[in-house]
Amino acid sequence: MRAQPPTRTDLRRQELLAELTTLFLREGFSVFSLAMLAERLHCSKTTLYLVAGSKEQIVVATVRHYFRTAAERIETLVAASDDPVRRLRGYLLGVSAELKPASEAFYADLTAFAPADAVYQENTVHAARRVRELVDEGVAAGVLRPAHAAFVGAAVTQVMTAIQRGDIAAATGLNHADAYRELTDLVLNGLGTGT
C-alpha cells in the first residue's frame, strides 16, 4: 500500500512548524501569546491551530519537531560514513551543530515549561543511548580502545543530562552546543581516537 501524498493542510502545518522552530530558537516561546505568534507568522490564530489546539500544545509540537528534524539530520551525517570513529564524531558534533542556533531564552523556556523540558529529556536519553551504540560499534571494529560501553554511555548520559539541566553552563559558562563539542573531544580522546 502506497503512502498518500501530503495534503495542503499537512504541508502548511510543516511550514508553520519550521517557522515556529526558527522563532522559538531565536527568541524563546514564553513571551508569545497566540495572537502575537499569528502576527509574527502573518497568519490567523485559526491557521496556528493546524499545529495544535492550544499555545501549550503548539509549543510542545514545535519542540518535538525541532528535536525530531535535528535527529534526522544527525543520523544522515552518521549514515554517510562506514568508519565508526567518524560516525561517533559526526554524531556528537552533529548534536553540537543542531543545538547551536538555540538562544539562552529558548533553553530558559524549556527548563521552565515541564512538557517541553520532558521532550528535551527524552531526546537526551535517546542521544546517550545512540552514543553507547556507536561506542559499541567502534570497540567491536577494533578502532576504539576497548571500553566498557555501558559505562561510557552512562557517563555520557550524566554529562548530557547536566548540559540539558543547565548545570554545565552554570559551572563552566559553556552554552549547550559548546558543551557538546567539549564532550566530543573528551569521549574521542578518552577512547584513544584523538579529534
Automatic annotation (TrEMBL):
In the UniProt record, does the keyword DNA-binding occur? yes
Q: Does the keyword Translocase apply?
A: no
- MF (Gene Ontology): DNA-binding transcription factor activity; transcription cis-regulatory region binding
Keywords on this record?
Answer: DNA-binding, Transcription, Transcription regulation
Extract the DNA-binding region annotation as residue ranges.
33-52
All copies of the HTH tetR-type domain together span 10-70
Q: Which InterPro entries match?
A: Homeodomain-like_sf (IPR009057), HTH-type_TetR-like_transc_reg (IPR050109), HTH_TetR (IPR001647), Tet_transcr_reg_TetR-rel_C_sf (IPR036271)
Which Gene3D superfamilies does the record associate with it?
Homeodomain-like, Tetracycline Repressor, domain 2
PANTHER family listed in its UniProt record = HTH-TYPE TRANSCRIPTIONAL REGULATOR BETI, HTH-TYPE TRANSCRIPTIONAL REGULATOR RUTR
| Name of this chain's protein | DNA-binding transcriptional regulator, AcrR family
